[in-house]
TrEMBL record:
Domain Vesicle transport v-SNARE N-terminal as annotated: residue spans: 1-91
InterPro entries, sorted: SNARE, v-SNARE_N_sf, Vesicle_trsprt_v-SNARE_N
Ranges in coiled-coil conformation: 31-61
Record PANTHER family: VESICLE TRANSPORT THROUGH INTERACTION WITH T-SNARES HOMOLOG 1A, VESICLE TRANSPORT V-SNARE PROTEIN VTI1-RELATED
Stated name of the protein: Vesicle transport through interaction with t-SNAREs homolog 1A
Residues spanning the signal sequence: none
Length: 167
């Protein structure tokens, strides 16, 4: 099980390194190359999200006593994913500002306040998303604990019934 997790970790590391490199290139490219690079980064971000989901599934299969270490790794990977998405949004904002400026002939000075406001709102949204995700994780863990308790109670009931039958 942990070997699958480690394999997913390696794939995630390679993928995030590629994404980081491509995000850095986005503002420097022009025209169709830029559009293609944005599409590639979006596709790779989706792949990274899928890898995170697979890793979460693997963590759920790990025995509870060793799950803590993997859960902390997952939190750091999710934070890294959030940073990548934020960086990508910033590079896309820069990209859309350039396109807007080319089309309208605007120098962009009037949009600085709007841009700052947009970045603030994006940051708030990301924080809220992280809080929601943490709440979801707690709910999933609580559900797992409840399921284990129900299984234990079922086993105890069977033992009690067998003991009654013997008596």
């Amino acid at each position: 099980m942990s070997s699958d997790f480690e394999s997913y970790e390696q794939d995630f590391a390679v993928l995030t390194a590629e994404i980081t490199g491509r995000i850095g290139k986005v503002p420097k490219l022009v025209g169709d190359e830029k559009k293609q690079m944005v599409a590639n980064v979006e596709r790779q971000l989706e792949e990274a999200k899928e890898l995170l989901e697979q890793m979460e599934l693997e963590v759920r299969e790990i025995p509870p006593q060793s799950r803590g270490m993997y859960s902390s790794r997952m939190r750091s990977y999710k934070q890294e994913m959030g940073k990548l998405e934020a960086d990508f949004k910033r590079s896309r904002i820069a990209y859309s500002d350039e396109v807007r400026n080319e089309l309208l002939g605007d120098d962009g000075n009037s949009s600085e306040n709007q841009r700052a406001h947009l970045l603030d709102n994006t940051e708030r949204l990301e924080r809220s998303s992280r809080r929601l995700e943490a709440g979801y994780q707690i709910a999933v863990e609580t559900e797992q604990i409840g399921q284990e308790m129900l299984e234990n109670l079922s086993h105890d009931r069977e033992k009690i019934q067998r003991a009654r039958e013997r008596v």
